[in-house]
Request: fold
Amino acid sequence: MNDRHPHPRRRPGGGPRAGRGPGAGADGTDALEREYARIGRADDIDLAADLLALVPVHEGRDPGRLRAWAARAVGFGRALAAREQGPHTGAAQVVEHAAGGLAPGEVLLAEYLQAPSGDRIVVYADALDYAHRVARAAGWERDYPPSAVREAALAHEEAHRALHAGHGRALRDRIGHDLLRWGPLRLRGHVAGADEIAAHAYAHARCGLRRSPLALTAAIAATLAHHGTDPSGPDPATPTGGRP
Reply:
């Protein structure tokens, strides 16, 4: 989840970089626990709007506009998943890498790559482990067992593959962001982050998860702000959050 196909590596939902972020220090654990709890209570639209707000190009945008875009992107991802019930046809080759998914301030679970020899989805075991540790720290281990995190990451990248194959235009039409109007003519614009939101919603529906991948992405972004990707944080053994 999170891709660079073929763009540079991106942070979860455009989230914060690692380091001693807000709440880090003596009160860091309590602050992170409160953030996990807030994320756990939020619905998909709220989480999606929050993640869009973290994308730099959306700084200063009206929250109502972001929420409307988020709702349309979530709805599009769910509808795309409903149309593609059953096994994937012509699925991309899956390649497993033990490392390569963690970098300072960044977590890359998987990425979709195009090549003349065939499409590939690269899955990073170190990032999957980190995501599962975040889920455990938040008290959501039953919602995100390792197998489910991997399955959702693959579904997320399959959604990107579908968007790249032609559904991307339909997503832009669904979002309805007009860059230019000239009489009856409209030029639809790309909303940065909308494809990520749609892919999260697609993975949620395809995998039948109780809790949305949007919540895990938000929790990863919050954890990066407090602990970064250091193997010592979050503590894989001691949950700090509660399961609502």
User: Anything to note?
Assistant: The chain has one domain: 12-227. The chain is about 50% helix and 10% strand. The first helix runs from residue 28 to 41.
